[in-house]
Each structure stands twice: as structure tokens, then as C-alpha cells.
Amino acid sequence: MFFHTKKNIIAVVLLCVSAIMALTLSCDPSFLDGTKTDGTAAVSSQRAVSLSIGRLTGVNWFGFETSSYVVHGLWSRDYKSMLQQIHDLGFNCIRIPWSNAMIGKNPNGIQINAYGVDAYTGRTGLNTDLEGLSSLEVLDKIIQEAGNLGLYIILDNHSRAADGYMNETLWYTDTFSEDQWISDWVMMATRYKNQSNVIGADLNNEPHGNTGTGSKPPAGWGYDTPGYPHTDWKAAAERCGQAVLAANPNLYIIVEGVEQYDDSTYWWGGNLSGVRDYPITAIPANRLIYSPHEYGPEVYQQSWFSDPSFPANMAAIWDQYFWFIYKQNIGPVLFGEFGIKEASAADPSSTAYKWFTTFMQYVGSKASWTFWCMNPNSGDTGGILKDDWVSVNTAKYNLIKPYLAGAAPTPTPTSTPTPTATPTPTPTATPTPTPTSTPTPTPTPTVTPTPTPPGGTCDNPEAKSIPLVYDGAGEYCWTLSSAPNFINSWNLAELTVNGVDFTNKWAAGSALPQKINGLYYIHYRGNYPWSHFEAK
């Protein structure tokens, strides 16, 4: 998902759902290669369901896939402190989204301050060892420190273009080829070959699209979607996975589902029902992980949430779409994304609370998973952290805490990753398909209406006060008389402050231009219901 409203779906989905299965990963080679510690062959059922080392129970920390080209929050926190807090909360794994556009870029939005004090540790000095580093070199530092803390890392290729996940249904685009996608993955696999805590390559986030009114071209599973050549996601994942394993045989190849299989649709990347007919066979079983995503009614009001039998109806739906992989011992499953807003987590009467707690009771103690997300700036769910980037949202955390597996064994850290030349990135252009209102379409589309926003035209700006937060499509002008501590935006077509461009960027208040007539004039233009701006 995105910090964005990433899971927003475009239309009603047929009654079908996903779930997950237990997966256990180990830095012990005897478990990674399917042998027991005594050297004999491991029992396949043990490998397929869970390894004796235990489960992965982690959290997503996003930002590298955005135009910041780095994990978010480093404008106010030290990266080592963020990792320490993740560790202290009991997570043993971090899923880190990244985009191909990040390669060769430099990050923005990092506070490098020798005198700054981190709000969690109280230590002086913020990100001082990140000065002058490229985005990949910052990722190196994060991975190394995570290894020192015993935290596993899953790298999630979230999009080709920065912030491009909403417009990209496939693993390639008109301006970014499959060959380049595989080449970049081989580079990443090689770069971290000797970094033992990097254990997973999540090849492509949420392949989607459907043959109805949803996004095009639609990803297929086991076949090219009729009328759309070169759309077989299963075949592409096998090609890429084989190349990644040739470069780094220690990785797990993590393969998400699609949106539509035959005539059934589900959440983006969450439909793994095609595995019954077309299981992945070209990737060794002890290196393969199936990875659906699961969300609740806060992302989209699917039909099953209003079924009279809800939530008793959910187990059968989850079995139908992915939990059968666990039950039939087909292969391991990692639940890559799921989440809930704090208000719903604190309200047992809410539909989202009932969905979430039913889901966790059904799979939470059996499955491996990475919760969405650590960041507070996710439009879909919010985060583990509050907007101050340090306080914990205790209601949602307390719902997942009983299902934490505990710390993984500390991998042997390495001082530096295997050096590799950073390839020149292929320029990417954001495609412009017909925008949709949500990430999971269905046969009969319904678009969530956008509420009438405040403000007027730029000829008649509306005076606002801090905090100013707005989500939605449209064009508006506002004024602020006082300086915010920071501004941030995403999925916007345009955002200017006194004529200076700040589109889809985080910026400190001190970086804003001088006031005009004692005011900041903010020009907002968004094309989607999930376009977002905040000044706090």
C-alpha cells in the first residue's frame, strides 16, 4: 500500500477473499535449503507450512517508492532510532517498498542535524551518517542497522515510477520494460547477497486490473488475459524469480496474487485462487512464498462486509481466495499488507474492528505477516505511529500484539553490502489510464463519492488555520497567516506555496518562501479522491 490511499478500490468486487498461511523463515541454512540440522532431508509438510524457527511478524515502513526516494519520517527521527522502536515493539521483520525510479537518485526529506534530539531515544544527532549518500546507500545503512538489531528485511518492488503504483497494473509499463525490471532486481539481489538479514524479494506489489470496468491492462494468472498479450503475471514472476535466485540463491521469492482470475475478482494482488490450477513450479518450493494482501471496509465497502452473516462469512471467503494454500499444504504464505485505522481499532462495534479481529483470530497466530504500516501518513489506515512520528497508536497495536512471534535470531551482520555498479535508471513516465477511485475493481463499478471540499477558486482564496489537512479531487486556493512546522502532499497534480512548487513533497516550514502580504497562498490541484495535502 501507500501512504497514500493505496488500497482504494475502483468497484464492487465479487464475493471472494484472501487469507494467509504460516510461514517461517530462518537464517539457518539448514532450514533455508530444506534440510534438517542433522543433515537429512526436511519433511516437505514442515517446510510448506511452517519452519521450526517460528513466524515472521513484521511491519511496513514506506517511502523509498515515493518521490522522496527514502523512507518517510527521517525529517523528524533518526533512522537508527526508528529501527530501534520497531524492534522494541516486538516486530522481527520490516517490509520496505521501493521503486525502480529510486535507483540512481538522491533522497530528499532527511533531517541531518548534529544538534537535533531524537524524540524516542533522547539522543543528540539526527541521521548525521547519511549526509551525501544516495538513496541506495541510505538503504544500505538501514539494512545494516536492522541486521544489528536482528530484524529481517523484505524488499518490495512497489512501482516502476515514483508514486506510480496507482497507474501501473503490471510489472512493466510503456516506458519501462520487463527486461529492465528483472535487471534491477538482479542488481538488488547481488547488492545484498552477503547481507544475511535481507531474506525476501517481493517481486511486484499488487498486480491488478480486470476485464470489466477496472484498470487496464489486467494481470492474469497462468494465462495472458484475453485481448491483452504479455499479461501472465505467474509466468513473469517465474522468469524474474529464476534470475534473482541465480544472483542470490539465499533469497525467498515472494509472489503476490492478481485481482481477477477467471471471472472472480478480489483485492489488488490478493486473488491467489489461480494457484489451484496453476501453481508456481519454476521456482524451488523451498524458495517460494505466496503473498496476498487483505484489507477491511475502511479501504472499500466490499459486499461481504454487509452480508447478514458477517463476520461468520469471512472464513469461507478467505479459504476460497488464499487460505487453501495453507490448508492444502501447497506452499508458504506471507501476508504482506493488512491494517486498520486507530478509531476503528478502538471501537469494538465497528465493522472494521470485527473484520480485523476475526481475521487475526483465524490466521494471526499461524501466519507470517507484515502489518501496514509504521508510517502515520497512510491515507488508508494510518500507522502504528501517531502524527508526531513517535507516539504509538495503542488500540491497533494492542490488537496485533498478542500475535507477535517474538524476535528472530540475530543474523550475522556484514559491514558493507556487496558492491555493485548502480545502473543508469531507465526514465519512467507515469502512464495516464482512466483514474479509478479504489484499488480493487469489480464487475459492477461503484465509485465512492468525493465530498464537497472547502475553498474556492484561486481568485477567491479561503483563509485557513493550522492544522490544514485535505483529501480529494479538485482545485482550490487557501491562505495561511502563520507558518506550519511542515507541509506534505501526495498524489497531487500541483501544489504551490506563493508560486513555488512543492508538489508531492515534504518540506519544513523554514523552507517555505517569504509571505506575500503576510500570507502563504496555497494552490492545490488534485485529480483523485486520495489526493492529499497537509500543513501542520
Topology:
Elements: H1 29-32, H2 44-49, E1 57-60, H3 79-88, E2 93-99, E3 113-117, E4 124-126, H4 135-148, E5 152-159, H5 178-191, E6 198-202, H6 233-247, E7 252-255, E8 260-261, E9 264-265, E10 288-290, H7 314-327, E11 334-335, H8 342-345, H9 351-364, E12 368-371, H10 394-400, E13 462-464, E14 468-471, E15 474-480, E16 486-490, E17 492-497, E18 500-501, E19 507-508, E20 520-526, E21 532-535
Parallel strand pairs: 1-2, 1-12, 2-5, 5-6, 6-7, 7-10, 11-12, 13-15
Antiparallel strand pairs: 3-4, 8-9, 14-21, 15-20, 16-19, 16-21, 17-18, 17-20
Brief overview:
With 536 residues, the chain is an alpha/beta fold. Helices cover 19% and strands 17% of the residues. It has 10 helices and 21 strands.
Q: Beta-strand percentage? A: 15-25%
Oligomeric nature of the chains: single chain
Q: Largest beta sheet: what is the strand line-up?
A: 10-7-6-5-2-1-12-11
Radius of gyration: 22 Å
Mean pLDDT reading: 84
Find the structural class using helix and strand composition.
alpha/beta
User: How does the major sheet shape up?
Assistant: 8 strands, parallel
- Low confidence ranges: 1-47, 407-456
Helix content: 10-25%
Shape: globular
Please tally the helical runs, counting DSSP H or I stretches of 4 or more residues.
10
Number of strands: 21
Distance between the termini: 24 Å
